[in-house]
Amino acid sequence: MKFQAIAFGALALMCGSVNAQELIFAYNDDGPHRAHILNLQTGAEIVVPTADGAVWNAAFSPDGKRVIYTLQTDTDAQVFVANRDGSEATQLTFEQQYAFHPSFSPDGAKIVYSRLSEQQLVLMNADGSNAQVIAESEAYDSFPVFFKDSQRLLFHSRRIESEFGDPGLFVVDTNTGSITHTGHFGTYAYPSPDGQSVVYSGKRDRDADRDIFIGKIGAPGTANPLTEGGGYDGHPAFTPDGKQIVFVSRMAQDPGFSRDEESDTAGTNEVFIMNTDGSGVRQLTNGGAVAWHPLVRD
Questions:
Q1: pTM of the predicted model, to two decimals?
Q2: Helix (H) or strand (E) run with residue 168 in it
């Protein structure tokens, strides 16, 4: 795959080519992962200050004024919400071990996250109250994300698996509790703004690197690969207008770096953006470190 590398501070060159205003992502260029916010029109970048620990997942509030994130320490990982400058940080979860993948509902009323210690999805009010398990099962459920209607959630689960070992992608209605399989298998899935399609990280075969796929919800066999080889591709998300997709990829990594040494904190995993047909791939970050979980807002 061809891409255009663009360094931090030079993103003004991309005005009009990115259908979003800001990008938030976790990055470990200074040691532990931190939440970075990058203006995609000017190239201005800020790092959200947090308490000691590593930020693994970060997302904007619907109005963009606050951020929600997981902060992992030596003993646990909890969900916090704070202003964009890191002020007024409030801990929302008090799990025995790990709370990951938090995000707001589009209407701002709810928050959902993964309770990794018990492999559950938890839905709560935006202030952290009334937490309850949803879509409960004995299978591993993870990475929930809201549809635009603030009612349905997309998540991956090992209730069923593909022949390559990927979990199934499911939709749960938080009002009725009904659960349906999308017809697709993969990880880190994200719904399109119109709720008709899903983008995710999947495999072509058991030993293949992960690529980005897009498919129609409820239509098995419609998945189309958008990337091809070149290392790990994951964590895709649509831009708000549904015309582009951000994702992380190892394709900017030095060919001399040993694949055996790649990890969540080692190697190069940069943020890229492309059109929904896989064309127009551009590199958005160029820090030479590991990026995770990019999301964009208007």
A1: 0.92
A2: strand 167-173
